[in-house]
Amino acid sequence: MADRKDKRIPNAVRLIIVIAVAASIMITALNGWSGVYQLVGLRDNIDSKNSLTASFFSVGCGDCCIISSAGKHILIDAGESSSKDSALHYIHQNGIDRIDLAVITHFDSDHCNNFLNILNEIKVDRLVTSYAFDGDDSGTGIIAAALKSGVAVEYMGAGDKTEVGNVGITVLSPSEIYSAENDNSLVLRLEAFGRSMLFMADCGTKAEQDIVNSCDNLKCDILKVSHHGSGKNTGEEFLQRAMPEYAVVSVGINSYGLPSVETISRLEASGARVLRTDKSGKVSFEISEKEIKVKTDY
Question: How far is 80 from 154, CA to CA, in rounded Å?
Fold first, then answer.
């Protein structure tokens, strides 16, 4: 009589099955891969009701930041189209499926071109830009695409306010239509959990001085430095009023000498800890009433 073949499952295969089942249970318990990413430190704590996460991406000489709290998400500028992998990777890694508010501070390509890539990937509810928008082709095309996708488009200036979940937003500038295009950038003050951030976009000297003259409270915990650290901006009077604990300079390889040595010196003299995306990669803050935690790529 022929020997019967042993149909038992080899131990190695059993181990693989057990690991696969355990991994499946863990992924389900952690609300999918985004929960796994958070467990191993690859995902930011974007869903907490008691804190806010602000991530400034390394997008060369451009600006792009995503702010998250309690499952709500704000995009402030989007960088060049060539920087799409940075923001979109973060969006997918963190399980973000909707931008509640997108802000394009102005329509220079290094602030806006990647917005269409993001718009093609996920839902955007609202888009806010400067009331001083001059109707250039780039901005007109982006606004048209946003409207076609069902995005509510709004134009704001100094004194306007809005909120997204836990985050209150006040527009500090522009207060008028300036002759210098960079001065027409939206400048924002964000407040949450007793903390504040200033986003200076590419604000120039005239608008910066008007902000100093007109705003009672410029004190901030985090400053997004104007125009990639240009030497003409972020003056001593402004810094004496703002007194930031952290200053983020969004900058990359360039032929313009950015950031300016003088601007970095002024920031350091003010007591701010300077964080540059060209040196640190993505810069992330987790902000709560208790503390501010900082994490960088390197």
Answer: 22
* Single-letter amino acid code for the residue at 154: E
CATH of domain 44-296: 3.60.15.10
* CB atoms inside a 10 Å sphere around CB 298: 7
Write out the chain's pLDDT in tens, 298 residues. Answer: 455 555 566 777 677 777 777 766 765 555 554 455 545 555 666 778 899 999 999 999 999 999 999 999 999 999 998 766 688 999 999 999 999 999 999 999 999 999 999 999 999 999 999 999 988 888 999 999 999 999 999 999 999 999 999 999 999 999 999 999 999 999 999 999 999 999 999 999 999 999 999 999 999 999 999 999 999 899 999 999 999 999 999 999 999 999 999 999 999 999 999 999 999 999 999 999 999 999 999 9
Q: Please tell me the pTM assigned to this model.
A: 0.86
**Closest by Cα among 267, 261, 119 to 198:** 267
Q: Where are the domains of the chain?
A: 11-43, 44-296
DSSP states along 115-131: HHHHHHHSEE-EEEEET
H helices present in 149-260, as ranges? 205-214, 236-242
